[in-house]
Amino acid sequence: MPVAIITGASKGLGRAFAEALAARGWDLVLDARDAEVLQGTATALEAYGARVTALPGDVTDAGHRAALVAGARLLGGVDLLVSNASALGAEPLVRLAELPLDGLRRALEVNVVAALGLVREALPSLRAAPAGAVLAVSSDAAAEAYETWGGYGASKAALDQLAAVLGAEEPGLRVWAVDPGDMATDLYAAAVPDDDDPRPDPVSVVPALLRLLDERPASGRYGAPALLEER
User: Fold this and answer.
1) Which among 48, 152, 188, 222 is annotated as catalytic?
2) Are 1 and 78 in contact (CB under 8 A)?
3) CA 39, 43, 45, 51 torsion: positive or negative?
4) Is position 188 annotated as part of the catalytic site?
5) Is there a contact between 153 and 141 (Cβ–Cβ < 8 Å)?
6) What is the pLDDT of residues 55-82, one digit of tens each?
7) Cα–Cα distance for residue pair 29/18, rounded to 1 Å
8) DSSP calls for 208-229
9) For 2, 4, 99, 164, which has the most beta carbons within 10 A of its beta carbon?
10) What is the pTM of this model?
């Protein structure tokens, strides 16, 4: 069966996408920092008959990234790499004039450097896969200027560019950066804790991600709302 590595997989969009893949017969290697929550997710997904390897850790740790790829190889390889783990840089978000530089560095390390490090670790397996793909979870903050979202948005814009260049350099793979749109997630709640407006459940975004896998469009940046509207 195909194998996916998904970072930030214990909750939110990562868990929702992992569950959809498990239901389709994929085997999974899942990452998150909270070991207890991650194990609960893994146990739930095993009910679909999937083989699930749960590896708690920090994606900025090179040893942890190597363990994720090694775990996938034990399951048969790496067919899909999903970079979903994200850091905001400040919680709650603040204007650039108040953004701690250490917070910005953390956002860049998690959202950009670690994502590239994991791609590099997995690249031989991705190239060997029948239909290797990389999916980088981006944000509309990467392309729009929203007050207080500057540090996070800059890191996601850098992730978009890495994905674009990787797609050009690896024509045998599919490399997609995906803006999922508004979602009700713990990340958003931490970013803007005073915002009580209802937002869509991350599960509503999953069909857009599955469409990419099913139709394998050219490498590039895609918006989940547009993918859903076009169906």
Assistant:
1) 152
2) no
3) positive
4) no
5) yes
6) 999 999 999 999 999 999 999 999 999 9
7) 9
8) HHHHHHHH-PPSEEEEHHHHHH
9) 4
10) 0.97
